[in-house]
Design brief:
It is built from 11 helices and 94 strands. It has a 25-stranded parallel sheet, with no helix packed on it. The chain has a 22-stranded mixed sheet. Helix 10 links the parallel strand 73 and strand 74. Helix 4 packs across helix 5.
Length: about 1450
């Protein structure tokens, strides 16, 4: 086709190599081949096209084209426009002998991988008008010669690694109107002279550099800017006065520019064109004008993270995004606040000091999609009018003072996906109306005063629920078995309630916790399309700690049923949840054995069965839990040898087994006597010992008499000896715990002595004859922390009687509490070989050394006695500690009786043998209801304390006491959010046995962290919110000296520096690293990729820049989840290179709100392990979906919410055979729903195509998706009839076809959907009668046919819908009487027949609807009197004015 002048094959889905035969088109003028599926090995065929003046090969793979592509292009003197962006080019010639393409006007080489300096020959293309070298990994300085391109109009060098200063020669580009140097490493002061001749400059981007731009105060720029982005440059401290000259600026970003002081008044009258204002992360203070009259076009206003104070201003404009978070605004929200911004989509005022109530006028914000008022002092009730904000997808009212009940009107928020009402004072029951929030994925109602039973309808109403958090309320009754039908549930937390009964048995439906299933959590909601958002956040109690997940909670699959009154055995079915990572059943009354198959939970990281009544041995299979990092089996009735091997042998903390008197073996100091169970009485160790002892038998009788009277007789008859004897024990004071009097056969005694001998060679030889002749007066020797005292011995040649007082002064050794014990063995010859066995005896502390005690089953009988009562010294210390506290809410009311046993006081846990206080747990749910006052130094008298938790109290700015550093037995210290302020004392570095340290609090700070290096056992560190800005430069090196660290949380700590390199990475055990929400302004350091143990990596919300995420992230062998993004557009991910890594275990990839550009690249198909992919809400994600996505054979969840396709549903999606959930809502899809390909998605359970522009008929083929549970086609332009084939979807539970243009009759076949619970056909053009067959939908809970053209009578068969709770038939043309049969809908809560042509009287049977809450019969032709028999509905009629 040699006459061709113009050839355009761009994005036509061609693939493979570009044929060199195109070089035969010698008359070609314009050639467009843009496509990511094409490639070329060389470009020399282009030299045969002498007339070519336009060449576009965008995204064509030219990586094989070698080093000569520049020389090829240099042979086109006629070339005017050249586009080679994102072509994989890695080489650009630094020099050219001569520049021949002298006609070139446009040169676009962006998004390549040159890794070189900007070549000088570009400055010789004098004709250039547009030069785009963005994101091409260029380094070095900006060549001064570029200032010679006198025709240049656009220059973009953004997102490279350019350094040095901005050359002043750029000021010679008098025609320049676009200059983008953002996201580089430029430094130095920007001279005013650079801009002297740039009179045409309209777009200036210098953000994310280290530039100082502080011109003279009277400087008058020669230009008038439309876009000005100086984010992260140094402008302060003054507010730039030269801005006053810019009258046409539309985008203004001065975030993180060190500006302080008050905003000048002239700024608010700057320009009427401003639509984007970002002043976040500065030190601006003062009050805003009220009302604040912003510019009419202002859509985005971000004033967050400053020091603004005063009342919340009313903003008079049409803003769509308003962020006032993390300031010091106070007072109530103005009542007219919402009416001034009717188009607001995102509003955040979290982290202020706002008080008062939520104004009821909020109902006027019909466009609001995300509302965040958390962390304030808002009180009162949640207004009913909030339910009228029907566009809401995210509501966060947590950490306030809200009271009253959860309003029923929230059930109208049918788009709601995440709801946080935790940490308030809400009461009452969970309202039934919430059943309508079918899209709910997160429901966090924890830490309130909610009561009643946990609703059974949760499982059916919230099919996509992933997070259910009801902890710390007052729920009663059983755990509903129906909760275990939530297939998407990944976190179930009902801890700290009053639940009783047994744990449900069936767990097979918890799909998200089986077979390593992980459901991706949508983390961001609302805002101006993809510009701003609400970040999901959740507190999760796991691994014995409270962890805050802000980026994602999908890593956690957790069941927490702790601190209830549950009984029965641990269900065997739990062991089938192979994807479970945390399980906590502690603090209940569970009995029976630990399931033998517990080892099947191979992914389990945290397991807590403590404080129950479990018995039996620890299953050997537990050693298979190779991921286990937190284990607690303490305070049960377990016995036998502790299993070893694999992960279990890494647990060297004996406290995890304490309180189980029968356990033995490492890490406990109690060695196992024998392998028999229950433990015996110390049998003869071998046959040789039996032979040796045969001569003893003849002396058993005389031995008993001599042994008894040798000691007891003397003590009874001789008073002086008795006084000396008892005085010895008096001197032991609190060390004396109890004594036991055991009588054994000589054979058993010999075995005991042999065992003692092996401990430390107390005796010099094995002969008992030698022993009888020695006087071992005052002999004492220490072996492994054990002291043995042997008093004088009197014996005879053929028999002997010895009384041994074995005093164990065992100090804290490997996390075991001190257990001083006295054992008295009288070796004798009783009539029976062994004494009777008593399984347990009660021992009381006494000053007397003698007690009548039954012998236990073990030679070391201490294991089978319990102590009652705490030590006087510790009781007194706790009483003194109590008196210094301010307990306004009587939290410590049980501490009032000084004479009582302090082990029974609230928050106290004692060792069940010694009585020493081990735990002091005084944390509360809400700091406003917590303890205050001061911490008395008497606390240090608790010398054996291992656990101290004072979190979430209200110590009102008191400093953390220095003396806490002297409590050296502490293993776990939690002072998070306790109201402490000031510097963290370095004395905490003396707590050398500390394992877990939680200091999360925005009121704390630290100048340095070197004291942490004194904590060698530290595995968990959470200093989130602590101000570490003064420790910014050495924190990495400190952490690098903690090789035992497993989890490190430094979220929102004000860190501004992260070391780019480390000599070596020592913290190689870290599995979770969260450095989110800091102020890092650099590239992502490569050393992070050396932490091979990483499972989860969070780098969100910083100011990272640079072109690349470190490539070796993809080579982290254990990485399963990765979240990347930047709130300020400072980190853009290069799709192609990012996705080309190995990503061996990556299962969840969440790039929502990351600054991704263009379409999804083909390299997405390389991550074949992906199970869930979410690109929801990502900015600038457009284009088609590549066929490479079909390689993701394990993909089950695909969410592309908001992906701007502007095309038909991609064919490649139909090849994802394992896909179970497909969400393409709000993707600008057009065209019909293809009928031919739907059958391939046979596993599909959820299909959401809502909020698009699909047209045509609903294909009948949808009826063939037999596994479908959820189908939503809401909000499209579909027309025609509803296909009768949908009636064959026997498993369908929800059918939503509302908001289309459907017509015709409702097919009677829908009456065969036996599993249907939710049917919404509202707001269409349906006509005809309501089919009587709908009365057969026995499972139906919700039916809405409102807003159609239905006529005829309401069928009486609807009265048979016994489960129906909501019925909406309003705004139709229905006539006749209201059927009396509707009175049989015993579960009905809402009934609306408004706006029809109904006549007659109100049937008296409606009086039987005892659960009815909402009744609307208005705008009909009803007549007659309201019968007294309907008196049960009087309150409803009064509400509607009947």
């Amino acid at each position: 086709m040699k006459e061709l002048r113009h050839l355009d094959l761009s994005w036509a889905r061609f693939s493979g190599s570009i044929p060199h035969q195109l070089g035969n088109l010698t008359k070609l003028i314009s050639l467009k081949l843009s496509s990511a599926s094409l490639s070329a090995k060389n470009l020399w065929w282009l030299t045969s096209l002498p007339s070519l003046n336009y060449l576009d090969m965008s995204e064509v793979n030219l990586s094989m084209a070698g080093h000569d592509w520049v020389h090829v292009m240099n042979k086109f003197p006629s070339l005017v426009e050249l586009y080679l962006p994102d072509c994989g080019l890695s080489y650009i010639s630094p020099t050219l002998p001569s520049v021949n393409f002298t006609s070139l006007l446009v040169l676009d080489l962006s998004f390549n991988n040159f890794k070189s300096t900007i070549p000088n020959w570009i400055a010789n293309i004098s004709s250039l008008e547009i030069l785009n070298l963005a994101r091409s990994q260029l380094n070095g300085n900006i060549p001064a010669a570029l200032g010679g391109l006198s025709s240049l109009q656009e220059l973009s060098l953004r997102r490279n690694q350019l350094n040095g200063t901005i050359p002043t020669t750029l000021g010679q580009l008098s025609n320049l109107y676009w200059l983008d140097l953002s996201n580089n490493s430029l430094t130095g002061k920007v001279s005013e002279s650079v801009f002297e001749n740039l009179k045409k400059l309209s777009y200036l981007y210098l953000s994310s550099n280290s530039l100082v731009f502080d011109p003279h105060s009277d400087w008058a720029p020669p230009f008038q800017l439309s876009y000005l982005d100086l984010g992260s440059c140094h402008l302060g401290p003054r507010f730039p006065p030269w801005l006053r000259t810019q009258k046409y600026v539309g985008l203004l970003d001065l975030s993180n520019t060190t500006i302080s002081g008050i905003i000048p008044t002239w700024f608010w009258d700057l320009t009427p064109q401003l639509f984007w204002l970002k002043l976040s992360n500065n030190q601006i203070f003062g009050q805003l004008p009220n009302p604040l009259k912003m510019w009419p076009q202002s859509l985005y206003i971000d004033l967050s993270s400053n020091h603004f104070s005063g009342p919340v201003p009313c903003i008079l404009n049409g803003a769509r995004v308003l962020d006032l978070s993390n300031n010091q605004f106070s007072g109530p929200i103005p009542p007219n606040f919402t009416s001034t911004m009717p188009y607001l989509e995102f509003f955040s005022a979290k982290g202020n000091q706002i008080s008062g109530t939520i104004p009821s006028s909020i109902e006027g914000m019909n466009s609001l999609t995300a509302l965040d008022l958390s962390q304030n002092n808002i009180g009162g009730i949640i207004p009913l009018s909030l339910g009228n904000c029907v566009a809401l997808k995210a509501v966060d009212l947590s950490k306030n003072w809200l009271s009253g009940e959860i309003p029923r009107s929230l059930g109208q928020l049918d788009r709601l996906q995440t709801m946080h009402l935790s940490n308030n004072k809400l009461s009452g029951k969970i309202p039934l109306s919430l059943k309508k929030c079918a899209a709910l994925e997160t429901m966090d109602l924890g830490y309130n005063n909610l009561s009643g039973h946990i609703p059974t309808w949760i499982s059916k109403s919230f099919p996509t629920l992933r997070i259910l958090r009801l902890r710390s309320n007052m729920f009663i009754g059983n755990i509903p078995p129906q909760l275990l039908n939530l297939t998407s549930l990944q976190l179930l937390d009902v801890a700290q309630n009053c639940l009783s009964g047994s744990i449900p048995q069936s767990f097979e439906n918890l799909v998200a916790m089986k077979n390593e299933q992980k459901i991706n959590l949508v983390l961001s909601y609302g805002g101006m399309g993809t510009i701003s958002y609400y970040k999901e956040n959740l507190l999760v109690s796991v691994k014995g700690l409270v962890l805050e997940y802000t980026a994602t909670v999908s890593l956690v699959t957790c069941i927490d049923l702790s601190r209830n009154n549950l009984s029965g055995e641990i269900p065997e079915g739990l062991t089938g949840l192979l994807g479970l990572r945390a399980l906590n059943l502690s603090g209940n009354h569970l009995t029976g054995k630990i399931p033998d198959k517990i080892g099947k939970l191979a992914l389990l990281e945290s397991l807590d069965f403590s404080e129950n009544q479990l018995s039996g041995t620890i299953p050997l299979s537990m050693s298979n839990l190779t991921f286990l990092s937190c284990l607690n089996l303490s305070f049960n009735n377990l016995w036998g040898k502790i299993p070893s091997g694999n992960q279990l042998q890494t647990f060297q903390d004996p406290s995890i087994y304490m309180g189980n008197n029968g356990l033995c073996g490492p890490p406990l100091l109690d060695k196992c006597v024998s392998d028999e169970t229950p433990p015996g009485l110390g049998d003869v160790e071998n046959d040789e010992e039996e032979d040796e002892m045969s001569w003893f038998y003849s002396g058993l009788g005389p031995g008993f008499a001599v042994g008894f009277w040798a000691l007891c007789g003397i003590l009874v008859l001789k008073r002086s000896w008795r006084i000396v004897y008892y005085r010895f024990f008096d001197e032991m004071k609190d060390r004396l715990c109890f004594n036991c009097h055991c009588t054994w056969s000589l054979q058993t005694a010999y075995s005991i002595l042999k065992r003692l001998q092996r401990f430390g060679q107390i005796f010099k030889n094995d002969s008992l004859k030698d022993l009888t002749s020695k006087k071992m007066i005052g002999l004492g020797k220490q072996f492994n922390g054990l002291y043995y005292f042997v008093p004088p011995v009197k014996s005879a040649p053929t028999s002997f009687s010895v009384t041994y007082h074995l005093i164990l002064l065992q100090t804290f050794h490997e996390n075991i509490v001190s257990q001083p014990e006295i054992f008295e063995y009288i070796i004798d010859s009783p009539p029976l070989a062994t004494p009777p066995i008593s399984s347990s005896s009660e021992i009381t502390h006494s000053s007397s050394p003698s007690s009548s005690i039954s012998p236990a089953a073990l030679p070391l009988c201490r294991r089978y006695w319990k102590v009652s009562g705490c030590f006087d010294s510790e009781r007194k210390a706790l009483t003194t500690f109590r008196k210094a506290l301010n307990d306004s809410f009587n939290i410590l009311s049980s501490w009032d009786d000084d004479a009582s046993d302090c082990c029974n006081w609230r928050g106290i846990t004692c060792h069940n043998i010694t009585g020493f206080v081990l735990k002091l747990d005084l944390h509360v749910k809400d700091s406003r209801l917590g303890l205050g006052g001061r911490i008395d130094p008497a606390l240090v008298q608790l010398k054996h304390l291992q656990f101290l938790d004072l979190s979430s109290n209200a110590f009102n700015g008191a400093p953390i006491p220095d003396f806490l550093g002297s409590m050296k037995e502490l293993r776990h210290l939690n002072l998070s959010d306790a109201g402490f302020s000031g510097r963290i004392p370095r004395q905490l570095g003396n707590l050398t046995k500390l394992i877990s340290l939680k200091l999360s609090s925005p009121s704390l700070s630290a100048k340095n962290l070197w004291w942490l290096t004194s904590l060698p056992s530290l595995t968990y560190l959470d200093m989130s919110f602590v101000n570490l800005s003064m420790a910014s430069h050495d924190w990495v090196h400190v952490m690098n000296m903690s090789p035992s660290l497993v989890e490190l949380y430094l979220w929102n700590c004000g860190l501004s520096y992260i070391s780019p390199t480390l000599p070596s990475v020592n913290f190689t055990s870290v599995r979770v690293l969260d450095l989110s929400e800091n102020n890092f302004n650099s590239s992502i350091p490569n050393w992070i990729a050396n932490i091979s143990s990483l499972v989860s990596l969070y780098l969100l919300g910083n100011n990272f820049h640079g072109d690349q995420v470190p490539y070796r992230f993809s080579q982290l062998p254990n990485l399963e989840e990765l979240g990347l993004g930047s709130t300020d557009d400072n980190l853009r991910v290069d799709w192609s290179e990012f996705l080309e890594g190995s990503w061996r275990k990556l299962k969840i990839l969440h790039l929502s709100f990351s600054q991704l550009h263009g379409g999804i690249p083909n390299s997405i198909g390389n991550i074949i392990s992906l199970e869930s992919l979410s690109l929801s809400f990502s900015e600038n994600i457009t284009g088609s979906i590549p066929r490479a996505i079909t390689k993701l054979i394990n993909l089950e969840i695909l969410s592309l919410y908001g992906y701007q396709m502007h095309a038909a549903i991609p064919d490649c999606l139909y090849e994802l055979k394992n896909l179970k959930s497909l969400s393409l809502s709000d993707c600008m899809l057009t065209g019909p729903i293809p009928a031919a390909r739907l059958g391939g998605l046979s596993s599909l359970e959820e299909l959401d195509l809502s909020g698009n522009q699909l047209n045509g008929n609903i294909p009948a083929a949808l009826g063939g998706l037999s596994s479908l549970l959820y189908l939503s086609l809401r909000g499209n332009q579909l027309n025609g009839n509803i296909p009768a084939s949908l009636g064959g979807l026997s498993s369908l539970e929800e059918l939503i076809l509302s908001g289309n243009q459907l017509n015709g009759n409702i097919p009677a076949a829908l009456g065969g959907l036996s599993s249907l619970e939710y049917l919404d056909l509202s707001v269409n053009q349906l006509n005809g009668n309501i089919p009587a067959a709908l009365g057969g939908l026995s499972s139906l809970l919700y039916l809405s046919l409102r807003g159609n053209q239905l006529n005829g009578n309401i069928p009486a068969s609807l009265g048979g819908l016994s489960s129906l709770e909501e019925l909406f038939l309003s705004r139709n043309q229905l006539n006749g009487n209201i059927p009396a049969a509707l009175g049989g809908l015993s579960s009905l809560r809402d009934l609306s027949l408004r706006g029809n042509q109904l006549n007659g009287t109100i049937p008296t049977t409606l009086g039987q609807l005892s659960n009815l809450y909402w009744l609307d019969l208005s705008h009909n032709s009803l007549t007659g009197n309201v019968s007294e028999s309907v008196e049960v509905l009087n309150f409803v009629f009064q509400f509607f004015g009947f």
